[in-house]
Input
Amino acid sequence: MDIKPLEELQAADERALLFTPLGLGRMTPEDAADFQQRAIARLQLADDVAETTRQKFEQLRIAFSHGVLCYELFTLVADAAQLALEQALRDRFCAHHRGQVLAVRDRRGHEHRITMTSPTDFFERLRDIRAPEIRMGAAREWKPFNGMLTGLLTWARREGLLRGQRNRSLEPVRKALRNIVAHGTYHLDTPVEAARALSDLAEIINHLWGRPTPGGRLYPAPLSRSVVAIGWSNHGEKTTAGYADQLAEARDEESFTYILVRAVFCPGGVTDPNLLEFDARSATTAFPAQYLWGPGSREEALVWLTRHQPEPDLCDYLDQAVLVRVHDSHIGLPVYPGVAAGLPAAEQRGTWHALRVDRGLDALAHLRALADAAAGHAKEGECQACPVDTLATGDLAAVLKAARGAGADTTPLHVPDVRTPFANWLADSAT
Output
């Protein structure tokens, strides 16, 4: 290799200057250094994260900050983030079992007792056991565990330290990326990819230690739901949505019909992309939305708001339980358990499915795939082809019991059959 003088080593890498906040361009070295450091400055780990994991994460942040001088560092950071995940999981495993005696079963069913005194000692002794298994989850079932990434991810999910069906569907991808890095292939990542890898790693680490990330991509903190007015014109050609407390200031060019809902709505922030597809009885929005009142005129909505004064609240959408009815070969839209429990008797007939999802319509897509005999979709348990976990199948009473066991509120709700014009189209498309 060429031996470069210190002055040249300290010079900014031209490739690192070409990415600006507005796209391709050219920044000064000073602006590039400031921009890249700010891109990861918000990434902070919870106070109780293991010190070894914290030190590794800080190493990656320092290396990223020096990517302005050596563009290849961005690739090294993105790759090392995949490997750091395994270390974080090991540290969390040891913290979870610190001081305990773990029973490890070998391939012949013999149990070995290992005291968790140090991570190094435990994993060295684990390697001496053929086909090791440990007990995991609330049911304390025996599951394979060799201390590698696959076993650690399975353990963390069974213990409830990792959540979300869409995150579960990404876990095989994370394992594949880790193997690609471990076995070595040449590639060149951008600062954007390296920053995303660090951001995802920070979210996973914090969630392992019980800290969701406000505004997070993978493990977000509960979202704020506002009281929202959704309106549409007589024939549905025009639709609108806004904060309900601003409804008095609305000046409709024509007569609008309104409904009031509690939903994720924050222009300029996080807003439910499917808000205008709201259906009072069905889980058609991206995030859980709650029917409050309507339909009616603007004046009637204002009277109701004055009388009841509903407040905003918070909602957690990861691993929510929804129910889907299949009746006469018709797959219905997903509904929340309380809504299903309050349906008229005639609408409770048929075969019901209780499913754990992050988005209600994921359940509909899964059942349609099963109806079409699509390859890879599981009728029971966790589906490996889509982000759905089937909790139970049977009559309504059976699936409500399963939903209750998964933490869902099954108190009957008597909700009117109200939906927006866009939701009418969605209901008609359900088969």
